[in-house]
Design goal:
About 75% of the residues lie in helices and about 0% in strands. It is mainly alpha-helical.
Length: about 110
């Protein structure tokens, strides 16, 4: 899809070249993001929003922001920002998976 999908949005050769370079990062983030978003939905449905908010703040401030600042400092460009997003998804997965496999979020019989 890396050669087809970007062309649906642009014909600009510079943008297409950048998309081709970043495509592996997009592909890497998809399965991790899918699991994270599913866990978000499960925990939201269970009313565990406080934990979700805390996990997002910790992942954003502890992982994404430092990677983004490194990208700025070392001039990694958009590739560095996308690595930051991949790292954010991995950090969120690391925070949400143990919560799901534990029993704290389950509240049987409550509305």
């Amino acid at each position: 899809g890396g050669a087809v999908i970007p062309r649906a949005f642009t014909g600009d050769h510079a943008v297409l070249a950048q998309a081709r370079e970043l495509w592996p990062l997009f592909a890497l983030m998809l399965p991790v993001g899918a699991v994270v978003f599913a866990l978000d939905g499960i925990l939201l449905g269970a009313g565990d929003t406080r934990y979700l908010a805390l996990a997002m703040v910790v992942a954003a401030l502890g992982v994404f922001v430092p990677v983004a600042l490194l990208a700025l400092h070392f001039d990694w460009g958009v590739r560095g920002v996308w690595w930051g997003l991949v790292a954010l998804m991995v950090a969120r997965l690391a925070a949400l998976w143990p919560r799901l496999t534990g029993r704290v979020w389950m509240r049987i019989g409550t509305l």
